[in-house]
Amino acid sequence: MPESLTLAWYQFRLERRMFWRNPSAAFFNFLLPLLFLALFGAIFSGNQKDLNVIVPGIAGMSIMSTTFSALAMNLTFLREQGVLKRIRGTPLPEGSYLLGVFGNAVANACIQLTIVVLAGKLFFNIDWPKDWIELMVYLGAGVTCLAALGVAWSHVIPNFDAAPAYVNIVFLPVIFISGVFYDVGNAPQFLRDIAQALPLTHVIDGLSGALVSGRSLQDNWSGLVVIAIWAAVGIFFAIRGFRWDARRTD
User: Fold this and answer.
1) Shortest CA distance to 157 belongs to which of 197, 24, 87, 149?
2) Which of 25, 42, 76, 154 is 20 to 30 Å from 243 by CA-CA measure?
3) pTM, whole model, 2 decimals?
4) End-to-end alpha-carbon separation of the chain, Å?
């Protein structure tokens, strides 16, 4: 076990170096959510009520972008290019490799959330988190759930050319329905019902409680249940459908 963890650490460091050497990945994982934050922050400047919605909403979107979207895209690329197959043939334990990849997604989510919290404090009159424990709990729950769903969704994607369409057909509706850019409580009833069934809605609610409203974990326990259910479903299908080999060869 110690040797496997050491190898996972080396793989994690390699993933970090490869990530920063890919400018497009850095843009979509970090700059794009921040551009949304700057844009909507400018639109709602002077309206603190809307800013209190936008900051945790963008934080939740950032977590989904760095986990669900990134893993679904990257694993599809690595699988279809034969990289996963070659890695499986090396002495590196499969668990160490996957742990390093997951750790990279967690690191990106933590960095992104830190940037959003700092931006909220410096530019949008959002105080420091009122409950750091709740913030960490929802960060961990959101990362685990959305990362598992991203891995599971990568099994559905037939090839890398189709990956952007397959990812965005989930990512874009979810961020709009879940209330990233508006208070979901003001949406029509049927949209509110759909939103309550989605994990991102409850991740955003938890982050909002930690950053803005000060609601405790006890107030949001039902949201954690929804996130846990989605996480269990994602982990099940992520493990059951995982493939090291490409679906097809030309």
Assistant:
1) 149
2) 25
3) 0.89
4) 39
Q: What is the CA 9 to chain-centroid distance, rounded?
A: 21
Whether the Cβ atoms of residue 203 and residue 60 lie closer than 8 Å to each other:
yes
Q: What are phi and psi of 157, to 5 degrees?
A: -70, 120
What are the backbone dihedrals phi and psi of residue 93, each rounded to the nearest 5 degrees, phi first? -60, 140
Length of the chain: 250
CB distance 207 to 59 below 8 Å: yes
Both tokens of 56, joined, read 């945790």
**Residue 197: strand, helix, or coil:** coil
Question: pLDDT tens, position by position, for the chain (250 residues)?
Answer: 578 889 999 999 998 888 877 776 666 666 777 888 888 888 877 778 888 888 999 999 999 999 999 899 989 999 988 888 898 888 888 889 999 999 998 898 898 899 888 888 888 888 888 888 889 999 999 999 999 999 999 999 998 889 999 999 999 999 999 988 888 888 889 889 999 999 999 999 999 888 887 777 777 788 899 999 999 999 999 998 888 888 654 4
Any idea where the domains of the chain sit in the sequence? 2-240
Residues 6+ apart with CB under 8 A from 92: 7, 11
